[in-house]
Amino acid sequence: MNRKWWHDKVAYQIYPKSFYDSNGDGIGDIPGIISKLDYLQDLGIDIIWLSPCYRSPLADEGYDISDYYNIDPRFGTMEDMECLIAEAKKRGMYILMDLVVNHCSDEHEWFRKACQDPDGKYGNFFYLRDKTQGRLPTNWRSYFGGPVWEDLPGTDKQYLHVFHKKQPDLNWENPQVREEVYKNINWWLDKGLGGFRIDAIINIKKALPMHDYAPDREDGLCSMDAMLREAHGIGEFLGEMRDRTFRKYDAFSVGEVFNEKPEEIADFIGENGYFSTMFDFNETVFGASEKGWYDAKPITPDDYKKCCFQSQARVGNTGFLSNIIENHDEPRGVSRYIPQEDCSLESKKMLAALNFMLRGLPFIYQGQELGMENAPFSSIDEIDDISTLHEYQTALQAGLTPKEALRAVLRYSRDNARTPMQWTNQKNAGFTTGTPWLKVNPNYTRINAADQLEDPDSVRSFYKRLIALRRHPDYKETIVYGALEPVWEDRHNLMAYYRKGDKTLLVIGNYQRTEQSVILPQAYKKVLLNNYPDISCEGSTVCLHGYQLLILEL
To answer: What's the whole-model pTM score?
Structure first.
């Protein structure tokens, strides 16, 4: 594998709206991010990914872009963005932006021109079909519910939107669309951007000609997965984009890739891959049901272990995965992967290390380093996320009571991760002097950055130690490039694996509250990390406390 500048880095995702508000309007902003760069540098962060802060009507919280060349005034100015890039560079850090090019906003100039002249140049920027009374062009279901087809205002046509109706899909089959995308990417890279996280990219290739699939719910519609399974040829688009943009700048790119076919992994992230890396979503999609969130199967510790090891085996040495516990589209990881009654400092640290030490690039989502938890929303009226609102209606239609439906969707709500960052134990968690745009989790009085900065036993201090271990000159080669080999795979509620390079490290997590013992295959030289103050050994037998995590050098 050719070694790249980003292989040994640690990344951190910021959701700008909820990170830090510098002007008291209740919305996080770019000047707020600049003011916290030293906090991130102290943690050990190298790469910062910003969720969208382009101009947008925020129908899907910025993933509906109305102007790719401007910053939304809610978040600041282009001068603020240029300042952020420069200030990050001073600290040896790289800024990534979101590349959202499967769709744009219905308020984008291109779409407005398509409405004015659907048969003209800009009509071909989108997927338009003639309107037929009583029949849709296809029976595909949008990711946010309902048909993917909407009437094109002022015309006798309909347009395709696989996400929200205010997010019309761009027609990547049109070379003019691709040229506009590449021009925009290069414009940002010329500004000094380190690269991009590429949103929902698998959706840019549609199976043509479009047609119906077997319905999978009583609404007569089918999941988008049915179409994606039939779509082939996305590589032509992605290879062209790589060659015209990222490769020229040696830029970092991480793909949000779902539904990839096994034979395509090398194409996506191999030596000549479309992207530098792609996220591992094996754990986040586990237990999903075609019926909806209300029918999803909760993940167990053994399930989590299997998901991680399956992903590692699937990719092997082909390339690098980007490993996550949570992001802006998921609930808080400690609330998802740890039984509620067992959520503690020890279990949060264990989960952190088990994920962080996997082969690949670690991504930390804002507040994850503090062990932030799901929010106790008490009413659907407190929810902002369009996906959660849709799933709530789906649960009601399936016969759940409002109370049951709320409980079901709150486990997975994206708003859990979008509550304001908890900086202090002061009003509004120190996020804003105004009224926060989304409810602050009331546990900020006991979970906040200010307290954890001063506490050597805090979750944040543990993450800082993990990051320091990853870049330690004695262990960096093994942790970054070493092989991963699972061990004791059949042991219930135990997750353990070797990292083997010029050193041999053993990572062990007792994924339960009760003790269990393991017999080490050989003596250990050194305890590199332990989330308890002690290690209980008798000969080669180690007795692990509940949720104890050990990283041993053998």
So the answer is: 0.97
462 pLDDT more than 90: yes
Q: Is the predicted pLDDT of residue 259 greater than 80, yes or no?
A: no
Residue 352, pLDDT score? 98
Could you write out the DSSP letters of every residue in 404-424? HHHHHHHTT-THHHHSPP---
Q: Work out the angle at residue 92's Cα, subtended by the Cα atoms of residues 88 and 96, and round it to the nearest 5 degrees.
A: 55
Helices (H) and strands (E) in the chain, counts: 19, 21
Q: What are phi and psi of 243, to 5 degrees?
A: -70, -35
pLDDT at 87 over 90: yes
Of 45, 46, 50, the residue nearest 61 (C-alpha):
50
Q: Which among 199, 264, 280, 385 is annotated as catalytic?
A: 199
pLDDT class for 145, splitting at 50, 70, 90? very high
DSSP-derived pairing of the beta strands 536-538 and 541-544:
antiparallel
Decide if 256 is catalytic.
Answer: yes
340-343 long-range contacts, CB within 8 A, separation 24+: 342/512, 342/513, 342/546, 342/547, 343/373
* Residue 199 designated active-site: yes
**Which residue in 72, 256, 267, 330 is the catalytic one?**
256
Distances (CA, A) of 128 to 74, 115, 171, 315: 32, 10, 9, 38
- Report the SS3 class of residue 72: coil
